[in-house]
Amino acid sequence: MRVNVLSAGTVASDVHFPPTVEEFFPPALGLDGWLTKFTLYTWVAVAVLIIFFLVAYRRPTLVPSRAQWIAESIYGFARDSIAVPMLGHEGVKFAPYFATLLSFILLTNLYGIIPGIQISTNTHIAFPIVLAAISYLMFNYIGIRKHGFVKYMKNSLVPSAPWYILPLLIPIEFFSTFIVRPVTLALRLFANMFAGHMILAVFALGGFALLNAQTWYIKPISVLSWVMAIGLTFLEALVILLQAYVFVILTASYISGALAEEH
Amino acid sequence: MLLAEIEGSLSAVGYGLAAIGPGIGVGIIFAAYIQATARQPESARLTQQWVWIGFAVVEALALLGIAFGFVFQ
Description:
The complex is a heterodimer of chains A (263) and B (73). Chain A has 263 residues and is an all-alpha fold. Helix content of chain A is 66%, strand content 2%. In chain A, helix 4 (126-147) crosses helix 5 (149-157), helix 4 (126-147) packs antiparallel against helix 6 (166-211) and helix 4 packs parallel to helix 7 (221-259). Residues 1-11 of chain A have low confidence and may be disordered. In chain B, helix 1 (10-18) runs antiparallel to helix 3 (44-71) and helix 2 (20-39) packs antiparallel against helix 3 (44-71). Chain B contains three helices and no strands. Chain B is an all-alpha fold.
């Protein structure tokens, strides 16, 4: 449904409502098509993280400066609330990767509500797929390195159950551990960001669509639609934090499962 | 002869049905956390991380519903 407005245009003259998936993906910026906005935003996110953490720790003092305190809080959260509760004392080895993963996912998710950018790079499923693939390779490699391939497979696939149910349980365990885990890691992050963006787009564009209504008494409802958009932006902020935390803590949980001894 | 006809998006109906399960699931998770904390307040810190893991795993199903709503058009 395309709403055309021929009024003395205070609003966009051609509001496409409801928004479709095609509108998520902006046109390429140049350089033969591979430089899109998403590429640029990913580069910016990586640059911001590297520069921030390097600068914050350039001259560490006992009483931290504000940047140092923020950097230490992120690392401390990753270590004390994610790595150590899941992995115990060995978790400290993984804490730098978890801190990096947490802050990268947080930053790329936050692009979704930063005005001007308002599209998270994780709405393109390629990015969560890569992050989930890294976690998948990581927990498998760590498990195989610790236990050896055969013993690791036995630990993962053979639950402690009577022998006659095992032919049913082992395919289920295989499917659950080696197929569902990486797929849902990627899909969860992607779908949360995708759905959040769609919701915000629906309420924002819906406000314009209501504003362009034919009858005068429907037009004020557009304000309600925009108030909902603002409220849902706060909800989206909560979802952003939660999804970054959940991705990292699930990775930690899978690693601790891979490292665990036999039941 | 058509007795009745429904027009519109079937994937929207599908998503609505798919959201029932995760809605109940998330309610159960938080109800369990609240009850456990009411019985033994010291355990709140210990169980809190499982609340978020459980919530995310259940919510993943609801979000698969949204995402596949666009895939199955």
